[in-house]
Design a protein that fits this description.
With 369 residues, this protein is mainly β. The chain has three domains: 106 residues, Immunoglobulins (Immunoglobulin-like), CATH 2.60.40.10; 107 residues, Immunoglobulins (Immunoglobulin-like, Sandwich), CATH 2.60.40; 103 residues, Immunoglobulins (Immunoglobulin-like). The strands form six sheets. It has a five-stranded antiparallel sheet with strand order 9-10-12-16-14. Strands 11-18-17-13-15 form a five-stranded mixed sheet, with no helix packed on it. The longest helix has 6 residues. The radius of gyration is 33 Å and the shape is elongated.
């Protein structure tokens, strides 16, 4: 009876592969200043999804970006290389090493060219984000009033090889509106993203008077490398009240806003009761009481004061471990439209030897409680 014969079949490890349309790009002669950007396109030629696991440039002057999501069979992805030409005249050859989850063998992409000196102005589109380049991605509205609707314009350019569409804002807050001109940017086309702030909507959403704001505006696009774009806006906000609102508003009055405890022996507690009184026509709401480091402030039990009512905010300073002049603050925020934030001051001079003096007294000017 013949012996059975076994054969070992070795399957190739690269069962899932990606194929680039080209692995080298020559920019030729380019002008120093604007970044040299090229997008390599690859195709998944296997029957399994493929994900890029590592994309690394040979030096810090080259910045890569790439398709983050798995690429389905037959689908395409991109690896973009951006070379910083500023201050780098002459020949350059840079590489980007690409690895994916189906094969340990890396793929090497190469960019090269010659950077020429130029006295011409640099390209204004200096902030590159995948297939889009911006003149800026951060801007301030400045001082915005609740009866205003200012706008900011961000200039953008498609530096890629395929059209990019601006689709929509992501979780856009109600006081912001986005518009795109045009909505779809062809390769090498310039456009604008306009952000409008509705002051009335900001007030309705609870923005406070004399407050600052910092917002990240997220935009969904069709950029295959990096679909989400982010712009940052900031500024300060002021509520404009009508004469009728002011006539009916609460009014926070502090007869004393500063207390000097004079000389105190180290370890002694300095305490003062600041009075707050509502001299307005509607309820005064004490929204917050915050003390600086080294001081404590006890919020009053009654945070809503009827017209004519008053209460106390107890401020305490523990001098243990502290010597010399001391100055602590307590910040009180209310719904008083004309005086929404008041800073109270508590002072003392802490000594660590004998000679504890008589404590100071509160100023006598102004109203008394």
């Amino acid at each position: 009876m013949p012996k059975a014969t076994w054969s070992l079949i070795l399957l190739p490890l690269g069962w899932a592969q990606i194929t680039f349309d080209k692995t080298e790009h020559d920019f030729g002669e380019i002008i120093e200043g604007p970044p040299a950007v090229y997008t390599f396109t690859f195709k998944n030629t296997s029957s399994k999804p493929v994900k890029l696991t590592s994309v690394k440039a040979s030096c810090g002057c080259t910045t890569p970006s790439w398709t983050q999501d798995p690429v389905p069979p037959g689908g395409t992805g991109q690896v973009q290389a951006s070379y910083d030409t500023k201050g780098r005249p002459g020949n350059f050859v840079k590489t980007i090493t690409v690895q994916h989850d189906a094969d340990d063998k890396p793929i090497i992409l190469t960019i090269k060219g010659v950077v020429k000196n130029s006295n011409q102005p640099q390209d204004k589109y200096s902030e590159v984000d995948a297939n889009l380049a911006w003149t800026k991605r951060r801007e301030s509205f400045g001082h915005v009033k609740s009866d205003q609707t200012p706008s900011l314009t961000f200039e953008v350019k498609n530096i890629g090889q395929t059209p990019v569409e601006f689709i929509e804002g992501i979780d856009l807050k109600p006081m912001f509106k986005l518009s795109f001109s045009p909505k779809v940017l062809a390769p090498n086309q310039e456009g604008k993203v306009i952000i409008t702030l509705d002051g009335k909507a900001a007030r309705a959403a609870g923005w406070k008077n004399q407050s600052g704001f910092y917002e990240i505006i997220r935009i969904r696009t069709s950029d295959p490398i990096s679909p989400e774009k982010q712009l940052v806006v900031n500024g300060s906000f002021e509520i404009v009240y009508s004469p009728e609102e002011l006539a009916k508003a609460p009014k926070a009055i502090f007869p004393v806003m500063e207390f000097d405890g004079g000389e105190v022996l180290e370890g002694q507690m300095v305490e003062y009761r600041f009075v707050i009184r509502n001299e307005g026509k509607s309820d005064l709401v004490i929204e917050s009481v915050k003390a600086s480091c080294g001081c404590t402030a006890v919020e009053p039990a009654d945070k809503v004061l009827k017209p004519g009512a008053s209460t106390e905010i107890i401020a305490k300073f523990d001098s243990r471990g502290r010597t010399g002049p001391q100055h602590k603050t307590i910040t009180v925020e209310t719904n008083d439209p004309l005086n929404s934030r008041v800073v109270l001051h508590l002072k003392a001079h802490v000594i660590s030897t004998s000679g504890f003096g008589v404590g100071g007294t509160a100023p006598t000017s102004g109203s008394s409680y």
